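Q: What structure does this chain adopt?
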Amino acid sequence: MSDKYEWRKKEKSLYIPKNKPELLEVPPSNFITLSGEGSPEDAVFTEYIGTLYSLAYTIKMHPKTMTTKPSGYFDFTVYPLEGIWDINDRAKADFLGTIDKKDLVYQLMIRQPKFVDTALYEEMLHLVKSKRDNPLLEQVKFTTIAEGRCIQMLHLGPFENESHTFEEMESFAQAQGLTRRSKVHREIYLSDPRKVAPEKLKTVLRFQVI
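A:
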């Protein structure tokens, strides 16, 4: 019987919501992150994802081989890719209701277990750098993000149809006497778009409210 920590089982409220809006309090968590700008169809976007996963899997696998395990260490399933999305200032100034993908600003990230601290992160980053010549590793950051009060919902289907889900979430917020803090939002990717048909994609959508 495996003692591996499974986020899908242990943290359903954060990662496995229903396809209807719900209010929740999101606690602070540590993430490895990469920030960029432009269309997710650009080649560099895929490189960003690969860079984060190479580090995330090193953090998962290498401590198993260490004679002295990190304090509080436990085996775990790597968390899903997440992204915080916005548009650049120029696009905001000229916004007419339609978003051009080249104007997107994003922060991609993968959450880390509690035992991962700055020292362990730096050690694992150095290890990955020693094995791969990847300039993007210089841009990776280890940071704590606190979202607080949010509304989230499971979006089923293509990314292009997310506006319908956001409309439903915003109506729910108004009914609760809440206001969406900004158009910035988080996406958590439960499906791999390389392997899953667009109509079957599962994405958690979340935004902060006040």
